[in-house]
Amino acid sequence: MATTVPVLLARDQVHRLLRHGDLVSRLEAALGKFSRRGSEEEREEVVQPLRTTVPLRKYRGYLGLMPAYMVEEDILCAKMVSFYEREEGCDLPAHEATVLLLDPQRGNVTAVMDGTAITEKRTAVVSAISAKLLMPARAEVLCILGSGSQAASHYETFTEMFSFKEIRVWSRRRERAEQFARSVQGPVAVCSSAKDAAQGADVIVTVTMATEPVLLGEWVKPGAHVVAVGACRPNWRELDDDLMREATVYVDSREGAYKESGDVILSGAAVFAELGEVINGTKAAQSEKTTVFKSLGMGIQDAVCAKLVFDQWKRQQ
Ligand SMILES: NC(=O)C1=CN([C@@H]2O[C@H](COP(=O)(O)OP(=O)(O)OC[C@H]3O[C@@H](n4cnc5c(N)ncnc54)[C@H](O)[C@@H]3O)[C@@H](O)[C@H]2O)C=CC1
Ligand SMILES: O=C(O)C1=NCCCC1
Fold this sequence. Notes:
Blueprint: E1 7-9, H1 11-17, H2 20-34, H3 40-45, E2 46-47, E3 52-56, E4 61-70, E5 75-84, E6 95-102, E7 109-114, H4 116-134, E8 141-145, H5 149-161, E9 166-170, H6 174-183, E10 189-190, H7 194-198, E11 203-206, E12 225-228, H8 241-246, E13 248-251, H9 254-260, H10 262-267, E14 271-274, H11 275-280, E15 291-294, H12 299-315
Parallel strand pairs: 1-7, 8-9, 8-11, 9-10, 11-12, 12-15, 13-14, 13-15
Antiparallel strand pairs: 2-4, 3-4, 4-5, 5-6, 6-7
The structure holds 1,4-dihydronicotinamide adenine dinucleotide and ligand LZCNNONV.
């Protein structure tokens, strides 16, 4: 049998081929399927082992390995993502990611693609799905804590999917928040403190590399929805104990949250539901209460995106 050479897709190609509008329904379906684990057959439908994380102590970083197989869709995929605690002023990226798409029958790699654009887009779309389900009715104020790549993709996705009257941003260094405000396509108010940005907001997105809480429960308006995207290590925090214990907590994967989320593990907060269970209608969306969606990222989210990118690329050949 002839050998095949994988297609190589660079960041700008992936960015262009991955259209945000195509992602919402596909990611909702994947999250729902992941959380349907009642029968043996259902459990075998989505194979997603817990992320393996290799510490890169010398560089204050980690390499995360995220394989996934979706049986019905026949998508076999693996992402490698490295992430680092960078010093202020360091110009190396905080994240680098590559996604491999494989032929599940033969086992060969069919495409090697940049995983950074996939990670940025799919994470923001999953956050927006949580907001759609869990934010209070008539949400008017969006607050973003952090001003990096995820802040940008969340701004873009949230402004495309919702109509907030006011959007606020806070970053540790005010000039970074100002730079962010200049770079986005639309209005955003720069706040001098996380407290000023968060108080009174209906939806708060935390997208920082913080290892200590940046958002305190005492600042959060009752009934608000918090989307916590950072703090993906068992000893890292973005949210304080008050918030974690007061809120109804939703996650992408229970197994992942109890292994990787410092906010869940160290606060001792109980996870109420996976987002997929809300999508499936087996758990309630308590949107009238204060809610937290603790996002950690899943291999199936990358798998769905990689397949979409590859299919679009093939269509254009
Ligand atoms: N849940 C998920 O699926 C994913 C989560 N992430 C996580 O999201 C977070 C944001 O990622 P990116 O925007 O790509 O990173 P980035 O490096 O582009 O931006 C990080 C932001 O955090 C701020 N920051 C760094 N240390 C801080 C501290 N101690 N206190 C407050 N702010 C601090 C920086 O100033 C910057 O605004 C990271 O924690 C990352 O690991 C990233 C990808 C997927
Ligand atoms: O899901 C991902 O991709 C990531 N999650 C946690 C931090 C690094 C990237």
